Amino acid sequence: MFMNQALKFDITHKLAGRLGRTGIIITPHGQIETPAFIPVGTQATLKSLVPEQLKDTGAQACLVNAYHLYLRPGHDVIDEAGGIHKFMNWDKPTFSDSGGFQVMSLGAGFKKVIDMNGEGGNNVTNKKDKLATIDNDGVTFKSHLDGSFHRFTPEISMQIQHGIGADITFAFDELTTLYHNYNYQVESLKYRTHPWAERSLLEHKRLNSVRTHRPPQALFGVVQGANYEDLRRQSAQFLGKMDFDGYGLGGALEKSRIGEIVRWMNEELPEDKPRHMLGISEPDDIFSCIENGADTFDCVSPARVGRNGALYTKNGRINIKRAEFKRDFRPFDEECDCYTCKNYSRAYLHHLFKTGELLSNTLATIHNERFIVRLVDNIRSSIKNNTFYDFKNEFLNNYYQ
Fold first, then answer.
1. Is residue 232 within 8 Å of residue 223, measured between CB atoms?
2. Which helix (H) or strand (E) holds 100?
3. What is the DSSP letter of 214?
4. pLDDT at position 113, please?
5. Active site residue 10
6. Distance of alpha carbon 320 from alpha carbon 310, whole angstroms
7. What is the structure's pLDDT at 3?
8. Annotation says 135 is catalytic
9. Rg (CA), the chain
10. Do 156 and 137 meet the contact criterion of CB atoms below 8 Å apart?
11. How many CB atoms lie within 10 A of CB 112?
């Protein structure tokens, strides 16, 4: 039996004096208690884990990548399989991004959070345009796999995401960087991100109306505007008046200002709709974003750094490849409740990484994903029991000591 609506969101607690809150997002494939960290299964898998292992980390949902799944195996294949949940054997809620980040950023070499020195200009435009050409209708880009040309428009992005069948989808938007100047950001909102949001919403509603053999899907509009307060507020106001189910907080951000930028957007967005922070997982960023009203987060970083041997602890990240762990037979983290820490020693993890065994990726990923999921779970609990600021100060003081 399908839900007769794509998404329902209830706020359960509020952080006194700030925009932070806890809540429950209800989708056709289950609910998400917020704030929540959403692991990224780029190609319908979180690298090195089976879905059952991902569930054991406490993950309430996962995010899949529209760009990569469009190229391989194709959204039509996933649709024919019965949708992403059946295709990857995942029975919890699923997000899919619009593909915009990948088609515009692959090869450009920038990150979601950037430490800036001085003001940016347009000095990445030429580099970016080598792989992607942006016009007011959409983006033409080269596949990173074989160099073949493809085109995404808002309508095509929505068709791909509906073929994938995720519970929560995102409107197609232009990904700008902090190196694009103010005038470019203004033009991007006026001629691309905002009109594309309108077109995404129209196509999304059409697809929901004709694809009645599938559960209804939700659509989040994506707020842009880089580091400019007037543009962030303008974008949030424009999208906030539209019939979206929730909102994505997008674009590259200057790390030192992430909290205030998130606050600008969330002061303008409707309070009764969920807000998803795209591409964030560092603990200090998570606390800042939650405090300023973000509800969910996704990021590839915990799994990626884990596969390189960097494992999270309450005292910061540790490189398990270091020689000091060769004869250390204690659990990696004696306070951690993950499968890895309950069953394997530091010496064994060190051995796996030094010998290049694939199991190293699995055990490190399990630990790192559990660490971030549990952190956000604890932040949610701290909001409920009015200990948020004490927990924040204690955790960050230990982690960044």
1. yes
2. helix 100-105
3. S
4. 61
5. no
6. 6
7. 55
8. no
9. 21
10. no
11. 21
Q: Which two tokens stand for residue 393?
A: 């100060």
Q: Which listed residue (79, 173, 295, 298) is catalytic?
A: 298
Angle at 8 between CA 7 and CA 9, to 5 degrees: 125
Amino acid in the structure at residue 379: I
pLDDT (mean) for 14-27: 97
Considering 97, 173, 245, 333, which one is annotated as catalytic? 97
d(CA 391, CA 291): 12
Asked whether the beta carbons of 302 and 67 are under 8 A apart, the reply is: no
Residue 258: other Cβ atoms inside 10 A: 24
For the stretch 110-152, pLDDT in tens is: 555 654 343 334 444 444 446 789 999 999 999 989 999 999 9
Q: Is the pLDDT of residue 376 over 90?
A: yes
pTM: 0.94
A 10 A CB-CB count for 75 gives 21
Burial of 149 (0-12, 13-18, 19+ CB in 10 A): exposed
| pLDDT at 106 exceeding the cut of 50 | yes
> What's the rounded Cα separation, in Å, for the pair 123 and 115?
16
Using DSSP's 3-state secondary structure scheme, residue 17 falls into coil
Task: Supply the mean pLDDT for the chain.
Answer: 93
Q: State the residue for tokens 């309430």.
A: 60
- The H or E element spanning position 113 is strand 113-114
Rounded to 5 degrees, φ, ψ at 178 are -70, -10
